[in-house]
Predict the structure.
Amino acid sequence: MSKVDRTVPPVIITPSAGSFPVPAMHELSGGVPVYLLGTGTLDLLRVEFVFNAGQCMEDVHLAASTANAMLTEGTLLHDAMSINDLIDRTGAAFTHMADKDTACLIAVTLTRKLGEVMALAAEVLFQPSFPATEFRMLMEKRIQSFRTNRQKTSVIAREEFYRAIFGGDNPYGRVTVPEDYTSLTLEDARRFHSLHYRPSNMYITVAGKDPEKALPELEKYFSCGGEEKWNKPVYPEIIFKTASPGRLFFEVSNSVQSAVRVGWRGITRQHPDYQGLQVANVILGGYFGSRLMHNIREEKGFTYGISSVSSALREIGFIAVVTEVANEYREQTLEEIRREIKELATVEVGFEELLTVRNHIMGEIARTFDGPFASAEAIRGLIDYGPDPDYYRRFEEKVKTITPGEIKDLVATYYNTDNAVEIIAGAK
Amino acid sequence: MISFEKHILSNGLKVLAHYDPSTPMVTTNLLYNVGSRDEDPGATGFAHLFEHLMFEGSDNVPVFDTPVMLAGGENNAFTNSDITNYFITLPSGNLETALWLESDRLKGPDLSEEKLKTQKSVVTEEYRQRYLNQPYGDLFLLLRPLAYKKHPYQWPTIGKDIAHIQNADRKSVTDFFRRHYIPSNAILSTAGNVKPETVFRLAEKWFDDIAPGTPYTRNLPREPVQDERREMTVHRRVPSAELLMAFHTGGRTSREFYILDLLTDILSGCDSGRFPGILVREKEIFSEADIYLSAEIDPGLAIVSGRLREGVDIRTAEKAVRDELNRVAGEQVTDAELDKARNRYESHQLMSFLSAGNRAFNLAYNELLGDANGINTEKEKYMSVTAEEIMECSARTFTEGNCSVIHYLPETL
């Protein structure tokens, strides 16, 4: 075989974002929306039940996460051990969680076990019994992991950052204190559940091969009957105070590294700048070859990793540069972060770097829709923060057409180093 | 059934290709048969440090990441005691870019003084971030040297001491490269939308001119049979006590592995397992209790780890675990438990096959174990495990003399 000329790289085919699968819409009786995504080759289905039951709906702190955690701790028909045994025997994987905006249960199952699994999903979602013993044990366990987390510099920095950005008096910025675990009652969790875990307050996504197979089962257990009709979600209004810039230091004695967060209030997905800002953020700190990684990890070796995110919850967005560095490199790292931001805010990005980032994001979008389960997650974002079925098509267009001038202006507008919130958690 | 084809280049590189037209992407997985078990006891952490250096560019690639990003891909790697594994996922039309990059860094990575210096610093920060600056982060730094006295599994992949990383010099790094980074010590696999004949043609094109090198013969000390309980107590700034118990087991390809893997699922693989049911819910001794296999290629460990509830004495906790282990050693698990574990295995295996990247890795890993087709035949090994085997194997494994224990306690103020 002739020797290959290694100095000539293979021709790169410009990556495209690919085709975006469009979910088929279906309504159960009473109007419960079901989104069907028929992709994939294996006999597996992923069914996700999403409730408007996140922390933003709480009247008592921790009620949302506790109500969600109690779903599999016993039902009116089965105690905790029996219900888990029934689920585990099917081989299905159940995961459930509550975050700031929503709460969900995801069931992944072999298609042939679908009937059993949907019956069990309905039982845990609508008939949990909230037994007192399990509630006590859950709260004790959560206090324990809370104490462990409060020793982690990264966790402290993250929570204090949200408090500084969103304000500590609303569900987005509230920092949990140990007393929260003792003041929440079983009744609070039960009430939260009965108010929010209802067919009228949910939607369902089904992804995998032949997802329509799930419809008869879903109709059986999750349709709205009688008086109850599906409602468009209504969210409480949250008033965010203005964030106060400046440095906040949290001492974690004996820590060998400091967790650092520098950031700002950002924008939500509806804002016209949101997608352009995503591109700018990738250049700064959104991939391995980003400005921050190159400078602070690959040139200086100060950290194992540094990244920048621009993200949004339903009501509010945030921008954050995040890293963990040796205590002795802390000030120098902050200085370099400011320098990289200023550079990007004053000098236009070059053609080659922009091309690299463009192609990288195209590949990311394609991977977002690679396979039924990845697609299901992407679709959820489009439903929760829209509805905006056209989001990725517009994003693709923005990535292709954004100019160096626009990027420079976006950084100058949203990454203002003079009014950043700086959080440091580490040793003095 | 995962179909694949295999081809071996003249320099010894094994190539495996799995075709899946349902995805627009392809993953290349390049597994090197070198891990921290191949390190010198005085220079540990090398395999992992070397993994970092492999991202620092090569003869014809100034910045490794740039072509991957231009091709719309993503890439990463990991190192463990047994292997160093690199993978790139990109649109299938750009497979050749991945092969160019992988072949170039196998042929001539940039091992300059400057790159070495920076990565030593990066790895030092990784050591701090993941092991020293985390509550309970040093548990496994303590367990390995307690459980192993001769075999190199006695040190963790990150290295037993930061000083080993900081003392790494160019000569030892270059020697390590020459010894282990040769085609016959590597397995390349692909999974995705590229046909095997194309994969083989392109692999020939980019890897064929790489010299075969001198085959490396692994000759590791065997771990002597442990016949006495080992115990260690440490105090750390943590809120709750942790119990760790480790028992020596057979290697990854032994029958014992499959028997114990299924048993650990019965004990703690799911919420209805015995540990969550008895140790957590019924007796309220632990807030979490788990048992799992280290799953290393040479004889490994079955590891019990449990976070104690407030106010429980660690000896009481250990006794409760011991009771459960004695129970599986003394009476057979029920048919219902065995059935459940088999069902769970079946569906979880299928779920893991959703990702083409996982399929590529598993093909290469099974080939390393002896036969890539293990990806298809392993299921039978699990399904054939009997309750008698589980009892007999438990009785042999969970003995007092085969046990290393760590009592990890909160500092008393």
Summary: Chain B has two domains: 5-207, 230-410.
